[in-house]
């Protein structure tokens, strides 16, 4: 009878009433799909802004090219940086379910405000006189203030929900049940396929709607479907599985650091076994010799343990060996974390400057004009194609000849970094050719006689790079982190996206300041036909290959 009870309920999960979750009535793929609906809408909204907003800022708001690019990359960077805040709120106060629901609504409101901003004429500066850029009046502070309000409401919504969606999705599967464990093995791949599918719809259908019928229609659709996705998400409330958090990992990390600093003058005991430990035998992590300065947090001072050790010590003064080892595991992730940031700097160029390149090139197929932002569809298509080839061809062959289920997470990241470096080199070569054509025409020529399909190789290579890096990073940070810090590690992974976008903004600002001197346009001119974007791409190519070499050293030492 006891075994039947154990099987019918999920041991570490509860239902919405707080009772043990019934295995047959809660969780599973249907609930995971309801959660993924929120992620798909998040990607719809974010990508429809990311790939096409530069053209709005330059063409309608009359901002300089570099300023427009940094506005978009700062927005994207903030969105992913706030994932750490979202993870903290989920772990400490709200839980994953409430965090997703609240911040998805915030995002929907932000998109709705953006739809209104792009519709009302008073929210935009007057059109350029005589059709020349020299006579354009830039957007004023009030107009840009409304744009920033909507963008950063969207960023807050994205940051709040994104770190919780994948975790809450995996909560719907029980790893102790063999059948559900096998189902969860497919979750991350399907997670990537779903968000890539959402991104592909955004950069094709939604971007076309924005260009042909007005941006307010495109953003209004995003806002509407996000509200609908929230309703779909809430409809599963009684069927979800909920897992209780063990407190904020950030607090636990700070406790170990503070306790070790307080006891920095203490001598380590000769016997490591005398260090404090309160975890059950089956869940303990064995002591390691790295970062031994942290071990002093487990040194037992006089009076800290009373009543034969039955009282709970102050965690800010005394931490267990297992808790310290968890912090050490997080520290070991940092070299890999740092060397994957540069990829997202390259990614930022695919949705900013590459779109500006496309806007100057021949995009016609018969009478149909491809929207410049839709060229990133090749980028998303490359991701989906790479995932399909990897799942259906590479993994079976690798399993047959190597006896392993595909590449390791570190191997996938390495392959992704290499492909991205090659993609940036291809981007530089194409820009050299585009500029050679532009020299023969007036700087205000809107369409140069060079096919936009020359940009496909760079989109394809960087897209294939993302397919390997994103899954590799997600797998690495979740499998190599402690059990109680997996939400924290997901947030840490997402900060690589944030810092990559911020690094892009920083590089753009530095390059613009250094190269635009003595009246020259510099590499990143307001009109890219007057600049040297190819030199900027070559700089990124060099930085990417240097970073790739450093990554190989870090991966070898991990």
Automatic annotation (TrEMBL):
<dbReference type="GO" id="GO:0006857">
    <property type="term" value="P:oligopeptide transport"/>
</dbReference>
<feature type="transmembrane region" description="Helical">
    <location>
        <begin position="216"/>
        <end position="234"/>
    </location>
</feature>
<dbReference type="InterPro" id="IPR018456">
    <property type="entry name" value="PTR2_symporter_CS"/>
</dbReference>
<feature type="transmembrane region" description="Helical">
    <location>
        <begin position="97"/>
        <end position="116"/>
    </location>
</feature>
<feature type="transmembrane region" description="Helical">
    <location>
        <begin position="492"/>
        <end position="511"/>
    </location>
</feature>
<feature type="transmembrane region" description="Helical">
    <location>
        <begin position="410"/>
        <end position="430"/>
    </location>
</feature>
<feature type="transmembrane region" description="Helical">
    <location>
        <begin position="186"/>
        <end position="210"/>
    </location>
</feature>
<feature type="transmembrane region" description="Helical">
    <location>
        <begin position="71"/>
        <end position="90"/>
    </location>
</feature>
<keyword id="KW-0812">Transmembrane</keyword>
<comment type="similarity">
    <text>Belongs to the major facilitator superfamily. Proton-dependent oligopeptide transporter (POT/PTR) (TC 2.A.17) family.</text>
</comment>
<dbReference type="GO" id="GO:0016020">
    <property type="term" value="C:membrane"/>
</dbReference>
<dbReference type="Pfam" id="PF00854">
    <property type="entry name" value="PTR2"/>
</dbReference>
<protein>
    <submittedName>
        <fullName>NRT1/ PTR FAMILY 6.2</fullName>
    </submittedName>
</protein>
<dbReference type="InterPro" id="IPR000109">
    <property type="entry name" value="POT_fam"/>
</dbReference>
<feature type="transmembrane region" description="Helical">
    <location>
        <begin position="368"/>
        <end position="390"/>
    </location>
</feature>
<feature type="transmembrane region" description="Helical">
    <location>
        <begin position="536"/>
        <end position="554"/>
    </location>
</feature>
<feature type="transmembrane region" description="Helical">
    <location>
        <begin position="147"/>
        <end position="165"/>
    </location>
</feature>
<feature type="transmembrane region" description="Helical">
    <location>
        <begin position="450"/>
        <end position="471"/>
    </location>
</feature>
<keyword id="KW-1133">Transmembrane helix</keyword>
<dbReference type="InterPro" id="IPR036259">
    <property type="entry name" value="MFS_trans_sf"/>
</dbReference>
<keyword id="KW-0472">Membrane</keyword>
<dbReference type="GO" id="GO:0022857">
    <property type="term" value="F:transmembrane transporter activity"/>
</dbReference>
<feature type="transmembrane region" description="Helical">
    <location>
        <begin position="330"/>
        <end position="348"/>
    </location>
</feature>
């Amino acid at each position: 009878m006891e075994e039947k009870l154990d099987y019918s309920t999920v041991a570490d999960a509860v239902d919405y009433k707080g009772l043990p979750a019934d295995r047959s009535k809660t969780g599973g793929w249907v609930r995971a799909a309801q959660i993924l609906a929120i992620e798909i809408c998040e990607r719809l909204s974010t990508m429809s802004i990311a790939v096409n907003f530069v053209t709005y800022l330059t063409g309608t708001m009359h901002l300089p090219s570099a300023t427009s690019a940094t506005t978009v990359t700062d927005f994207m960077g903030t969105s992913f940086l706030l994932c750490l805040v979202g993870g903290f709120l989920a772990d400490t106060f709200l839980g994953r379910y409430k965090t997703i629901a609240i911040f998805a609504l915030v995002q929907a409101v932000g998109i709705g405000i953006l739809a209104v901003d792009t519709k009302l004429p008073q929210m935009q500066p007057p059109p350029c006189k005589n059709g020349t850029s020299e006579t354009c009046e830039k957007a004023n502070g009030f107009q840009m203030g409304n744009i920033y309000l909507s963008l950063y409401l969207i960023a807050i919504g994205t940051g709040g929900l994104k770190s919780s969606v994948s975790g809450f999705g995996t909560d719907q599967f029980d790893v102790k049940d063999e059948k559900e464990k096998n189902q969860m093995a497919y979750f991350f791949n399907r997670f990537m396929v779903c968000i890539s599918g959402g991104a592909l719809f955004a950069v094709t259908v939604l971007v076309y709607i924005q260009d042909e019928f007005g941006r307010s229609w495109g953003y209004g659709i995003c806002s509407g479907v996000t509200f609908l996705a929230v309703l779909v998400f809430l409809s599963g409330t009684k069927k979800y599985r909920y897992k209780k958090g063990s407190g904020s990992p950030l607090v636990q990390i700070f406790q170990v650091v503070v306790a070790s600093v307080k006891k920095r003058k203490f001598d380590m005991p000769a016997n490591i076994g005398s260090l404090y430990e309160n975890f059950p035998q089956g869940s303990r992590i064995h002591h390691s010799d790295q970062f031994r300065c942290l071990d002093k947090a487990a040194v037992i001072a006089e009076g800290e343990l009373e009543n034969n050790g039955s009282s709970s010590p102050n965690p800010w003064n005394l931490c267990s060996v297992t808790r310290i080892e968890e912090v050490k595991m997080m520290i070991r992730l940092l070299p890999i974390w740092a060397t994957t940031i540069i990829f997202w700097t390259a990614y930022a160029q695919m949705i900013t400057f590459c779109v500006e390149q496309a806007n100057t090139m021949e995009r016609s197929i018969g009478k149909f004009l491809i929207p410049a932002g839709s060229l990133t569809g090749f980028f998303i298509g490359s991701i989906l194609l790479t995932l399909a080839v990897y799942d259906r061809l590479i993994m079976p062959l690798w399993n047959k000849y190597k006896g392993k289920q595909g590449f390791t997470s570190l191997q996938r990241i390495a392959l992704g970094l290499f492909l991205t470096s090659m993609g940036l080199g291809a981007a530089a070569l194409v820009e050299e050719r585009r500029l050679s054509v532009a020299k023969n025409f007036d700087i205000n020529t809107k369409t140069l006689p060079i096919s936009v399909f020359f940009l496909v190789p760079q989109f394809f290579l960087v897209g294939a790079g993302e397919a390997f890096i994103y899954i590799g990073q997600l797998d690495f940070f979740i499998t190599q982190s402690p059990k109680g810090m997996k939400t924290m590690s997901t947030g840490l992974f997402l900060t690589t996206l944030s810092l990559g976008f911020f690094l892009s903004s920083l590089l753009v600002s530095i390059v613009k300041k250094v190269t635009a001197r003595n009246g020259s346009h510099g590499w990143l001119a307001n009109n890219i036909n007057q600049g040297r974007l190819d030199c900027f791409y070559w700089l990124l190519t060099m930085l990417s290959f240097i970073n790739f070499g450093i990554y190989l050293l870090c991966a070898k030492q991990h």
